[in-house]
Amino acid sequence: MHLNTFGSSRGRPVLLLHGGGVAGWMWNALAKALQAEHLVLVPDLPGHGESAGEPYRSHEHTVTELARMVTEAAVGPAAVVGFSLGAQLTVKLASEHPELVDRVVVVSAQARPMPFTDLTLRSLAVASPLARRRWFARLQARELFVPQELMKHYIATSVGISRETMVSSVGDNLRFGIPAGWSEFPGRALILAGQRERKLMRQSAATLHAALPGSELEIVPECGHGIPFQRPEWFHTRVTALLDA
């Protein structure tokens, strides 16, 4: 995976995981805000952005690679912040490698498997060429509340995503359920969902919270599926508070 780093190698490590259809650029402002005190690791997940040449295989494969990345780049456990697809990976990484993770921010993670996944994926495979159309990418960007100043990055990322990556990443996203080790994660956990997100997303946040005693759940007012884009200053403050706690 392509990896951008910010800050000093002596800083406390923070891993930022983007959502599907975007790339590490979504975290540029947060990474720069954190770099004074942290070593910030910002990968482009397989099939996305600068990692588009390596298709997305599975959540399992990606988490294995992320665990290796944290082990090689950081000294001590990392805080992990994940959005959407990246939030599922955050939960899985914390569940399977708690020795590498000491706190997490889970933003808009679907955590209830969807029915009729195969039918949905067949439809997605047929429609995947649309993702390479700029007009369609702009429509999708609105669903994520991507700001205008990042639109060119979103369009470039969307156009570069292959059918294989789209089907594999969305497939694992739709099938995702809470990993067995999540309830035993010993670190701090903040779980966020937007008040205006689909009911499934709010239910998923509640399920993740109920499964991990001591975690914190917050439903963010007036937000949809795009909290880091919709309320960036609030989000940065919330993340920093958790890192400093």
Describe the structure.
The chain has helices at residues 28-34, 59-73, 85-96, 117-127, 134-144, 151-159, 163-175, 199-211, 227-230, 232-244, and strands spanning 2-6, 12-17, 38-44, 78-83, 101-107, 188-194, 216-220. The protein is an alpha/beta fold.
> Structural class, please?
alpha/beta
H/E topology pattern: EEHEHEHEHHHHEHEHH
**Average pLDDT for all residues:** 91
**Any idea what the shape is?**
globular
Major sheet characteristics: 7 strands, mixed
Poorly predicted runs are: none
Task: Indicate the multimeric state.
Answer: single chain
Number of helices: 10
**Proportion of β residues?**
15-25%
Helical percentage: 40-55%
Q: Evaluate the radius of gyration.
A: 17 Å
Q: What is the end-to-end distance?
A: 30 Å
Quickly list its features.
245 residues; alpha/beta; seven-stranded mixed β-sheet; 7 strands; globular
How would you concisely characterize the structure shown here?
The chain is an alpha/beta fold. It has ten helices and seven strands.
Secondary-structure topology with pairs:
Elements: E1 2-6, E2 12-17, H1 28-34, E3 38-44, H2 59-73, E4 78-83, H3 85-96, E5 101-107, H4 117-127, H5 134-144, H6 151-159, H7 163-175, E6 188-194, H8 199-211, E7 216-220, H9 227-230, H10 232-244
Parallel strand pairs: 2-3, 2-4, 4-5, 5-6, 6-7
Antiparallel strand pairs: 1-3
